Amino acid sequence: MQIMSLEWMATFWSGPAVAANMAVFLNLFGALLLGLVVGYERSYHGRAAGMRTYGIVCMASAALTVFAGYPQFWYGGMSATTAPVDPTRVVQGIVTGVGFLGAGVIMKEGLNISGLTTAASIWASSAIGVLVGVGLYSAAVLLTGLSAALMMWGSHIESRLPSRHAIGIQLRFSPEQHPDEAWVSQLINACGYELARGSISINVEQGRSDWRFVAVAFDRTHGASLPSLAATLAAQAGIDRFQLSHARN
Asked: How many helices (H) and strands (E) does the chain have?
């Protein structure tokens, strides 16, 4: 069978090849669902990596694993003659290199982290390229569709589910004010938030205390907006200065 002949091209879309692609798709879809479940737990608690990031990474990992189970369909059934080296070793190098590329788009500014979904989508695109490279075209098309749909509509799904958003707070107290954790906790509880455990950082300079911490809303409806929270803190005696920002930690 000659490469680029009609007979060779037809092998990519033969009945057994399409069945193998459908089996790969079922694995991808199952991995996507499980990744969404894990990602929702993180999204619910206000973490940066949410449903879309976890779903894409889990699905792409499945793609890079499951294709190795169908070597007889690689390159239109000609893997024995066209692949003198183990392709999975090439895939390892691709995944490692793309991982460094994805890390470059992740940005951290204060308590905000951005670019995680973009990094995950870059990594998923490498899995799509691998599937295309070995000739599992249907699985590559389906993985592309799932990734694109997840990036376009995943945030809308997240926005409709119960969640607890987080806010980064920095408070500077007057010299005569010596707050404790119970007092600060009571203050933000009145605004619909609770202190995130382990997030408190205290700096004392020239008798002034600077508190930095993350506050997590009780639920979607109870957490006060940033302007409302700012108004409450501005009216509070003993606080000289404060800074608020949305935090995805």
From this structure: 9, 7
Helices (H), 45-115: 51-66, 79-82, 87-103
**Domain 166-247 CATH assignment equals 3.40.50.2000:** no
Can you read off the two tokens belonging to residue 203?
């700096």
Domain residue limits, the chain: 6-160, 166-247
- For the stretch 150-172, pLDDT in tens is 878 877 887 787 777 788 888 99
pTM of this prediction?
0.54
In sequence order, the 6+-apart residues with CB closer than 8 A to the CB of 102 are: 118, 119, 120, 122, 123
Tens of pLDDT, residue by residue over 69-102, are 777 777 666 655 554 556 677 677 777 777 776 7
17 backbone φψ class: left, alpha, beta (φ>0; ψ -120 to 50): alpha
